[in-house]
Design a protein that fits this description.
The protein is an all-alpha fold and about 55 residues long. It has one domain. The chain is built from 2 helices and no strands. It is globular. Keywords: Signal.
């Protein structure tokens, strides 16, 4: 996983632009109404989505 992040930080000519970062958690005073996905889970899904992109 760290290797993947290092590859993303390095400039890659003729590569697709990285996908937008996951949306931030909604800032509400009602925790029960927020998204069920935790930030770590969103990051994991985000990394899985990055791995599916052709480099």
């Amino acid at each position: 996983m760290l290797l993947l992040l290092l590859l993303l930080l390095q400039p890659q000519p003729q590569s697709q632009p990285p996908p937008p970062p996951p949306p931030p958690l909604p800032l509400t005073s009602h925790p029960q109404k927020t998204s069920k996905m935790s930030p770590t889970r969103r990051t994991a899904n985000h990394l899985l989505y990055i791995q599916t992109l052709p480099f």
